[in-house]
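ARCHIVE CARD
CATEGORY: sequence design from structure
SOURCE FIELD: tokenized fold
FIELD CONTENT:
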């Protein structure tokens, strides 16, 4: 790492600290940029790296969930998104001031309602950066806090060392399967039923007077390796 890298790494850590972020990872996204939505090809190709940031979801708020989302959870969810978006914007400003390119991608902004996808899959970036793995509930699962994190990303051409995927999976844990009211969570992460989940979120948004597509049940159930003590580590871990 040369002086500039150390300087920039310190700057990212400073933004992380100032914005009370819990995790920060860096991914090489050159091999997966075609998965980015709503970004013109020439814009996409400016950015070889992605900085992914995460904040924890409050355990106390999750404990208020019984059989679906509530207004407390929805409010908290929005506050975490604001926190992440603010941190991502601040990080992008600092990077641009250093003469590099940076594009903050919002924590939660759907750009394609048919597929429920945003500009970029934060969880895939977090996976590439080594922050966690793809769980049976189709979310990013961290070792420390399971699915109880929210994510945002800053695309950049800042020259930085990157992380790499962990050799970890859900192992024998099945906790989230039993709590999903839609039966969307399957044995294999790849078999996750997006349509069933989407229909359930739609119903919750109407029947719980929330007006947004949130749920929280499989997030509450998933506490990662620390909470479940059943996951398996099958490869190298940073
Ligand atoms: S968000 Fe709710 S409906 Fe969707 S998979 Fe999780 S528990 Fe099931
Ligand atoms: S609850 Fe268990 S099976 Fe479900 S995503 Fe989390 S670690 Fe994986």
């Amino acid at each position: 790492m040369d002086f500039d890298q150390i300087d920039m790494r310190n700057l990212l850590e400073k933004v992380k600290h100032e914005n009370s972020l819990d995790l920060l990872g860096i991914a090489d996204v050159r091999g997966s940029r075609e998965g980015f939505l709503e970004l013109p090809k020439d814009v996409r190709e400016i950015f070889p790296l992605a900085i992914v940031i995460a904040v924890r979801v409050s355990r106390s708020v999750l404990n208020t969930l019984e059989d679906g989302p509530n207004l407390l959870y929805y409010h908290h969810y929005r506050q975490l998104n604001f926190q992440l978006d603010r941190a991502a914007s601040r990080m992008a400003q600092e990077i641009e001031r250093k003469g590099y390119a940076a594009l903050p991608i919002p924590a939660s902004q759907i750009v394609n309602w048919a597929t429920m996808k945003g500009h970029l899959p934060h969880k895939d970036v977090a996976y590439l950066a080594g922050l966690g793995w793809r769980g049976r509930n189709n979310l990013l699962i961290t070792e420390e806090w399971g699915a109880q994190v929210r994510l945002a990303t800053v695309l950049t051409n800042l020259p930085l060392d990157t992380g790499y995927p962990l050799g970890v999976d859900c192992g024998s844990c099945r906790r989230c399967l039993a709590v999903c009211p839609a039966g969307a969570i399957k044995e294999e992460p790849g078999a996750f039923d997006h349509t069933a989940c989407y229909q359930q979120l739609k119903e919750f948004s109407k029947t719980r007077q929330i007006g947004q597509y949130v749920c929280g049940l499989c997030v509450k159930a998933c506490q990662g390796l620390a909470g479940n003590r059943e996951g398996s580590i099958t490869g190298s871990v940073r």
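CARD ANNOTATION: Residues 137, 179-182, 184-185, 197, 200, 215, 217-218 surround iron/sulfur cluster (ligand 1) (CB under 6 Å). Residues 71-97 form the longest helix (27 residues).
SHELF: design records, drawer C
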